[in-house]
Design brief:
The protein has 270 residues and is of the alpha+beta class. It is built from ten helices and twelve strands. The protein folds into two domains: 2-183, Jelly Rolls (Sandwich), CATH 2.60.120; 187-264, Orthogonal Bundle (Arc Repressor Mutant, subunit A). It has helices at 2-11, 16-33, 35-57, 63-66, 148-157, 159-185, 188-203, 219-226, 230-242, 258-264, and strands at 72-74, 79-81, 89-95, 98-103, 109-115, 120-121, 134-137, 141-147, 205-207, 210-212, 246-248, 254-256. Strands 1-8-3-6 form a four-stranded antiparallel β-sheet. The protein has a four-stranded antiparallel β-sheet with strand order 2-7-4-5. It is globular and about 55 Å long. The two termini are 32 Å apart.
Length: 270
């Protein structure tokens, strides 16, 4: 997975030092915790680059560039792209939710982000000719597909975006450090609390004293985000529910008490 870091360094030299530090921390933990953590760290580095690129290109940064383009629709559970695909397209999300992840060498799926309106998926094609990740629609989704060569033209025309990308990479590494420490030391309940905190902060909607996570997620999908077995997630969710930290709506979506959740996690809602 170091190849992603090397290619990003080649594209964005200003990221060299921060990515090298992240790599050193990852390597130290891998030596301590063995092969399972090594796979998780590799996936974490991939996720760090992916999320940084998503931040750089998403949330209005390309609004003018996208305004006159045709929409493409995907139904729930449709695969937008898969590991090994060679189409070099960015998909800018206009509506709906998409899960983004990868498959480990043992065949297990890991979800490293949920993306929504204003985000982009498929951004790793900027550094890879063959896709290392997959993206699946969680509900009806509308996207705008843009070929890589047009993205490169956009970067050439807007040097300020390159500067912004370096800043975003630096800030994204803060989350990577948090993820590394969580995988290395925290138990399932705390890791679950961190994931739910991130979801509530990113896509949550205030509903009385609770925050609703407005997309239905199965326990298996939550397990893939926490990097834990589904049985452990079921037990952890039951524990959080008994303590009033989470509850389910009649539609089966999660509601969280952000104050109790924040007290349990490393994530701030500010």
């Amino acid at each position: 997975m170091w190849r992603y870091t090397k290619k990003v360094q080649q594209l964005y030299p200003g990221c060299l030092m921060t990515l090298a530090v992240c790599e050193a921390v990852s390597s130290e933990l891998i030596n301590k915790r063995g092969d399972r953590l090594a796979a998780e760290m590799a996936m974490g580095r991939q996720a760090t680059i992916s999320n940084a690129l998503c931040s750089a290109f998403g949330h209005g940064n390309c609004a003018e560039f996208l305004s006159s383009r045709r929409l493409t629709s995907f139904r729930k559970n449709d695969v937008i792209y898969n590991v090994g695909d060679r189409d070099r397209l960015f998909f800018f999300i206009k509506s709906g939710f998409v899960k983004v992840g990868a498959t480990t060498s043992s065949g297990s799926d890991v979800i490293y982000d949920l993306r929504c309106q204003g985000d982009v998926v498929g951004e790793l094609c900027l550094t890879e000719t063959e896709r290392p990740d997959w993206a699946v629609a969680l509900e009806k989704v509308e996207v705008v597909a843009v070929p890589l060569h047009e993205i490169r033209q956009l970067l050439a025309a807007k040097p300020a975006m390159m500067t912004a990308m370096i800043d975003i990479f630096s800030r994204t590494l803060k989350d990577a450090y948090s993820q590394i420490n969580t995988l290395a030391a925290d138990g399932t309940v705390r890791r679950l609390a961190n994931v739910l905190s991130v979801l509530a902060r990113k896509v949550g909607r205030q509903s009385g004293e609770m925050v609703e996570i407005p997309i239905y997620l199965t326990q298996e999908e939550i397990a893939q985000m926490v990097v834990a077995r589904r049985e452990r997630i079921s037990t952890a969710l039951n524990s959080l529910r008994r303590n009033g930290v989470v509850q389910y709506t009649t539609r089966g979506v999660l509601m969280v008490d952000k104050n109790k959740l924040e007290a349990m996690s490393d994530i701030s809602f500010e």
